[in-house]
């Protein structure tokens, strides 16, 4: 990295670009041209936060001012908005949106939720990855386990139909144990090593990522017990 910057005559940029946190704490991106693009004569690298926009001038917290022609607002996405614009209601008219608004978004195996029977969630809390494509966990069949979220949901629905189950939801204690395991596992990961990233909520809790490998996620789904981990209500025979 330093050599590439020095080759462009901009070795002084290294101290601005080398992060103080561990590699992987924020999502790693790869590019063959990124460093060279920062060395262009019309590019200014500014690490200080923006204090205000004054006319066509950006004023930073450190007092630096930079003129601009076009201002691009890279404000990102609501990555903790797991439900999008949907309003989800469960038992006793409980709003899932309200339940998750101010607390940790608890699930069981990142797919089902206690109090919300027959509800399946794809790419919800703790099912994205900081090292792999999320598509694999949603729908891929590459593993011999064949246990993506979609396949798990289909398998579960087939189980419900076979056993005439009309209502299906995880037990509260099973969900609490699962969430406790997630939070404990995250403590020893690079994502909890001190940087601020979109993996975290406003309280600094890792809510978006699975703390292990993609295979461990599929194993977690594979080892799910419908009889011990779920509340199953069956239809009454006529």
From TrEMBL:
PANTHER family referenced in this protein's UniProt entry, alphabetically: FAD_NAD(P)-BINDING DOMAIN-CONTAINING PROTEIN-RELATED (PTHR42877:SF4), L-ORNITHINE N(5)-MONOOXYGENASE-RELATED (PTHR42877)
Species whose genome carries this gene: Apophysomyces ossiformis
Name of this chain's protein: Monooxygenase
Similarity annotation: Belongs to the FAD-binding monooxygenase family.
Organism superkingdom: Eukaryota
Gene3D superfamilies for the chain: FAD/NAD(P)-binding domain
Lineage: Eukaryota, Fungi, Fungi incertae sedis, Mucoromycota, Mucoromycotina
């Amino acid at each position: 990295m330093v050599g590439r910057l020095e080759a462009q005559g901009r070795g002084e940029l290294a101290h601005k670009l080398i992060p103080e946190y561990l590699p992987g704490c924020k999502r790693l991106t790869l590019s063959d041209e990124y460093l060279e693009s920062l060395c262009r004569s019309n590019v200014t690298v500014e690490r200080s936060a923006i204090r205000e926009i004054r006319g066509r001038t950006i004023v930073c917290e450190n007092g630096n001012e930079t003129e601009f022609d076009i201002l691009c607002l890279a404000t990102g996405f609501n990555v903790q908005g797991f439900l999008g614009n949907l309003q989800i209601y469960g038992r006793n008219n409980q709003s899932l949106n309200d339940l998750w608004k101010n607390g940790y978004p608890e699930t069981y195996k990142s797919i089902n939720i206690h109090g919300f029977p027959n509800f399946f969630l794809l790419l919800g809390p703790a099912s994205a990855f900081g090292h792999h494509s999320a598509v694999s966990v949603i729908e891929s069949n590459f593993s011999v386990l064949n246990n993506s979220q979609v396949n798990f949901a289909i398998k579960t629905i087939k189980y419900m139909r076979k056993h005439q189950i009309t209502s299906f939801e995880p037990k509260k204690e099973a969900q609490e144990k699962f969430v406790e395991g997630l939070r404990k596992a995250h403590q020893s990961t690079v994502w909890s090593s001190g940087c601020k990233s979109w993996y975290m909520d406003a309280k600094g809790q890792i809510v978006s990522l699975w703390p292990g490998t993609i295979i461990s996620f599929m194993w977690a789904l594979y080892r799910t017990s419908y009889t011990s981990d779920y509340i199953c209500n069956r239809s009454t025979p006529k």
